[in-house]
């Protein structure tokens, strides 16, 4: 007799993203990789598409393994077209908690701790001699990558390395979705120091549980609304 399965009482543990061995590169190459990543992770409007040719001109100066990931993403973007790529971008980064482009969100989620985390980002910019003046929040990944590309201070690279757990969770989510943006996050992982076993375990916890949630007491630079996706990964 076969008993029908009515409920999924247990589910398999979600795997960690496969470990990527960092690619050896000098600071100028890393700066180029991070600047290209910053530009390609932005919203794909008309100006974004207009920049692609200029970006391609710089791919020859970075390690081939990373250049291929960028080139593949650019080819996919062109083949997809602006309207569809914009729709996919919103569906991916605006509507899924585990695909947030805001680095502190992975550790703090929608809790009161996020305001403190955002202040830490602003202090890091200032400590390296920069002011943050964009419309986005200071932990926005493209902004942090631009900071890393333009600043010669090691603070920028340390800021990215300190949030490798969030970056890896983002990579895992995008890879699980077979998202074209997964290639861009791989380039970041390849440009940073390797992830140790302890960090991998923390990544696994975040992959399984998602960012923390709390809906009260959120305020930073005015009223910061909680992240309320209409979908989830």
From TrEMBL:
GO biological process: chaperone-mediated protein complex assembly; nitrate assimilation
Keywords, sorted A to Z: Nitrate assimilation
Keyword presence, Nucleus: no
Keyword Translocase carried by entry: no
GO MF annotation terms: metallochaperone activity; unfolded protein binding
Domain of life: Bacteria
InterPro entries (UniProt xref): DMSO/NO3_reduct_chaperone, NO3_reductase_chaperone_NarJ, TorD-like_sf
Pfam family, one: Nitrate_red_del
Protein name as annotated: Nitrate reductase delta subunit
Organism: Glutamicibacter uratoxydans (Arthrobacter uratoxydans)
């Amino acid at each position: 007799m076969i008993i029908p399965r009515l409920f999924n009482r247990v589910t398999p543990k979600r795997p960690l993203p496969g470990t990527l061995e960092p690619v050896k590169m000098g600071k100028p190459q890393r700066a180029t990789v991070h600047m290209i990543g910053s530009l390609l992770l932005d919203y794909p409007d008309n100006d974004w598409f207009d920049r692609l040719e200029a970006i391609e001109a710089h791919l020859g100066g970075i390690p081939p393994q990373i250049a291929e990931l960028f080139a593949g993403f650019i080819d996919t973007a062109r083949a997809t077209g602006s309207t569809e790529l914009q729709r996919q971008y919103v569906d991916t980064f605006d509507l899924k908690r585990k695909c947030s482009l805001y680095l502190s969100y992975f550790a703090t989620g929608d809790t009161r701790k996020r305001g403190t985390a955002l202040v830490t980002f602003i202090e890091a910019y200032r400590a390296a001699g920069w002011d943050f003046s964009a419309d986005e929040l200071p932990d926005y990944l493209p902004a942090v990558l631009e900071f890393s590309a333009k600043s010669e201070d090691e603070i920028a690279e340390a800021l990215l390395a300190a949030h490798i757990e969030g970056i890896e969770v983002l990579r895992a989510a995008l890879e699980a979705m077979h998202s074209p943006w997964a290639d861009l996050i791989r380039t970041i992982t390849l440009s940073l120091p390797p992830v140790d076993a302890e960090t991998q375990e923390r990544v696994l916890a975040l992959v399984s549980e998602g960012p923390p949630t709390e809906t009260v007491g959120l305020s930073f630079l005015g009223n910061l609304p909680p992240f309320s996706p209409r979908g989830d990964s």
